[in-house]
Amino acid sequence: MPAQQLPTPESRLAAVKRDLALPLVVAICGSTRFMDTMTEADLQETAAGRIVIRSGCNMKEPHALWADPVAAEGLKERLDDLHRAKIRPVRQGTVQGVQA
Q1: How far apart are CA 38 and CA 28, in angstroms?
Q2: Cα–Cα distance between 65 and 59 in angstroms, integer?
Q3: Rounded to whole angstroms, how far apart are CA atoms 46 and 66?
Q4: How high does pLDDT run on average in the chain?
Q5: Which residues, 6 or more positions from 53, have their beta carbon under 8 angstroms from its beta carbon?
Q6: Which has the closest alpha carbon to 26: 66, 97, 86?
Q7: DSSP assignments along 27-94, one per residue
Q8: Residue 28 exposed, middle or buried by CB count within 10 Å (0-12, 13-18, 19+)
């Protein structure tokens, strides 16, 4: 009788997601210059029943959180790291604002 292979962590995670019937998680990526396009893509993906992950701060628009240039520099680095971390577990992504 052949030795039975143990499930991999990836296959166990996939099985749990399937059993929980979790919706597909998508990431919307792109420059915040295209925030309107990303907002529309978010709306379309959400209406299609998907969980959407995207940038939550548009530092190109004035806001008290990034009014101080020194604080803004540190915040931008943290937000970039956070966005990359949000993308890692995603199975599908869209890039908005790419010009051919």
Answers
A1: 7
A2: 9
A3: 29
A4: 87
A5: 25, 26, 27, 28, 86, 87, 90
A6: 86
A7: EEES-GGGHHHHHHHHHHHHHTT-EEEE----TTS--GGG-SHHHHHHHHHHHHHHHHHHHTT-SEEE
A8: buried
- Beta carbons of 43 and 71 less than 8 angstroms apart: no
Residue percentage of the chain with pLDDT more than 70: 93
Q: Residue 72: CB partners within 8 Å, gap ≥ 6?
A: 59, 66
Q: Order across the sheet with 25-29: list the strands.
A: 51-54, 25-29, 92-95
- pLDDT at residue 3, as a whole number: 75
Q: Name the β-bridge partners of 54.
A: 28
pLDDT at 39 over 50: yes
